[in-house]
Prior knowledge:
Layout: H1 15-27, H2 32-41, E1 45-51, E2 56-62, E3 67-71, H3 77-83, E4 88-91, E5 94-97, H4 98-118, E6 125-127, H5 131-143
Parallel strand pairs: 3-6
Antiparallel strand pairs: 1-2, 2-3, 4-5
Amino acid sequence: MKNFSLAANSTAFSLKKAYIMAMASKLAYESEKTITGIIEHQGLQSVFINNNQTDTQAFIAHNTNCIVIAFRGTKNLHDCIIDAGICKVNTPYGRVHAGFNRALDSVWDQLMPIISTIQPHNQPIWIEHHSIDRYIKNLIKTVG
């Protein structure tokens, strides 16, 4: 894997960033041990988040230049059941997909304190995109 590092405080599009996010998306399907090993080999720190009840997993790769958050998308039947919760629910941030809202809620209390702790330099946060991640990214932008 090429270097996972992003330029400090850079938020402009680049092919390198797109490639890094594609690799993060692929990496999100690996085991915690594999994810941690690859991220640390890249010289970044890592945090793995898992909620067994909703089968929601994410990893955070970070340093003083950037923070990358990658949520695993649909991988198994349990994920399909969460995805099938297509009814909309009212939240303080608008009407959202019930299954995705449940998935995000299940890791929110782990995710936000970690971000607060690892972002002392106001580094940009990059969130990779699967269908659930697109929703989660939008909610984080709205709430965070």
